[in-house]
Task: inverse folding
């Protein structure tokens, strides 16, 4: 077995792991990343599309923000559709000029991967049987297999950035962790197509047939979603069926303006709220989807991964450069305070926009009344807007 040493062993090369690697490198702290999949596979997962200003700021700090600024679409508003009409929320007016940046997770991930490669930093892709050990001591290590050989990385700290299905969280003894969960009784069927988006800004649509979302990746590439039953398969959704269903859930004028075209990607995502507490176990730290999941309705998942990484990079910098072990102790509490607010927002937005099995005509009317209130009240609009653009760190 070959043994090497680093300061931080990061498990997972998703946005959380890659961003943490860059921020640590900028601070002069060494890190190695272990990723189960190939780089191409990681880049083929179509996921988030909306970045908060704080997330873009972190990409800048990591030296990776240039393309996001050049190619991302700055949105100062977002649309809500309900009861056959479209209502624009002016995010900038409600938040003193804040906006969001529409820039695909795959692009941000690629920028982070490219920067890592340019600096010659080590990432082991297709690492198998990754396992964290002895993180309840101050000499943790991680083992993994590659090309049939087992390798060991000795480190000071392990960062579990390996997503919801990763190995880090399950390595923690059951009695040291508490989890909170809500599974929603529906999923999102998503489609990517090289057609111009129907509107300049996103549309979140409440409809009695189910939720729909009109999003985009660029002025020439659209990303659309419709709420679907959990047991639906991608094969159940021909392109024609998808476009018909999407249009039925939008106001008539918007539906008519939808440009359809062949899909280039289709997938179904289940919806879940999940939080693990705490996010620290001795020298093992969870960040991003490894520690919490939100339904995509508020576009918060990737942004929360970024804010965790912000707190974790700060704590690790204080630990390694200033010998401040207290910073590590405060990480979980600091990160979770922001996480729970985003979990609350995503749950609330999901509850207001989707058709639930038991909601009936009464439930539909209550949702419409809430949306009417939300769009008619400055206080309620401001509350939605400040959460949507992202709460401060
Ligand atoms: P990731 O992206 O899941 O990356 C974890 C990485 O760890 C690897 N891994 C392992 N590596 C080594 N050993 C193991 N045993 C491992 N197990 C796993 C995985 O291969 C992977 O590369 O987690 P990370 O970095 O925390 O990032 C989180 C985000 O990816 C996620 O929160 C967002 O995609 C959620 N999300 C959205 N977030 C937003 O902020 N805005 C959005 O608009 C938004 N839209 C979405 C979304 C997620 C979606 N899906 C499919 C769940 C839309 C959808 C449809
Ligand atoms: C996306 O573009 O994939 C997207 C946008 C907003 C969301 C979720 C997903 O809330």
Result:
């Amino acid at each position: 077995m070959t043994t090497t040493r680093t300061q931080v062993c990061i498990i997972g090369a998703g946005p959380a792991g890659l961003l943490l690697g860059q921020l640590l490198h900028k601070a002069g702290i060494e890190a190695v990343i272990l990723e189960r999949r190939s780089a191409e596979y990681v880049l083929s997962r179509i996921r988030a599309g909306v970045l908060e200003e704080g997330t873009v700021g972190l990409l800048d700090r990591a030296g990776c923000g240039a393309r996001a600024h050049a190619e991302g679409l700055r949105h100062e508003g977002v649309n809500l559709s309900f009861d056959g009409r479209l209502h624009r929320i002016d995010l900038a007016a409600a938040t003193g000029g804040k906006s969001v940046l529409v820039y695909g997770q795959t692009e941000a991930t690629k920028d982070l991967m490219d920067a890592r490669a340019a600096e010659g930093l080590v990432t082991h892709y297709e690492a198998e049987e990754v396992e964290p050990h002895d993180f309840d001591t101050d000499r943790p290590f991680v083992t993994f297999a590659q090309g049939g050989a087992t390798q060991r990385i000795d480190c000071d700290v392990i960062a579990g950035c390996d997503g919801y299905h990763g190995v880090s969280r399950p390595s923690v003894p059951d009695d040291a962790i508490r989890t909170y969960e809500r599974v929603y009784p529906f999923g999102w069927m998503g489609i990517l197509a090289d057609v111009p988006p129907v509107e300049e800004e996103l549309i979140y649509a409440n409809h009695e047939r189910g939720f729909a979302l009109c999003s985009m990746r660029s002025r020439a590439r659209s990303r659309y979603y419709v709420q679907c039953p959990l047991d639906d398969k991608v094969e159940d959704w021909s392109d024609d069926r998808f476009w018909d269903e999407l249009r039925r859930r939008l106001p008539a004028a918007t539906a008519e303006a939808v440009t359809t075209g062949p899909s280039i990607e289709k997938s179904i995502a289940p919806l879940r709220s999940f939080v693990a507490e705490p996010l620290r176990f001795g020298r093992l730290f969870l960040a991003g989807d490894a520690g919490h999941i939100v339904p995509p309705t508020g576009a918060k998942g990737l942004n929360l991964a970024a804010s965790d990484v912000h707190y974790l990079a700060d704590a690790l910098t204080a630990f390694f450069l200033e010998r401040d072990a207290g910073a590590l102790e405060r990480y979980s509490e600091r990160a979770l305070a922001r996480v729970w607010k985003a979990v609350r927002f995503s749950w609330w937005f999901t509850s207001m926009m989707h058709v639930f099995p038991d909601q009936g005509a009464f439930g539909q009317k209550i949702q419409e009344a809430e949306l009417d209130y939300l769009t008619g009240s400055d206080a309620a609009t401001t509350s939605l807007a400040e959460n949507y653009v992202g709460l401060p760190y």
In short: The radius of gyration is 21 Å. Residues 11-17, 34-37, 42, 47-50, 105, 127, 130, 161-163, 165-167, 188, 190, 269, 288-289, 296, 299-303, 305 surround RFL (ligand 1) (CB under 6 Å). DSSP finds 13 helices and 21 strands in the chain. The first strand starts at residue 2 and ends at 5.
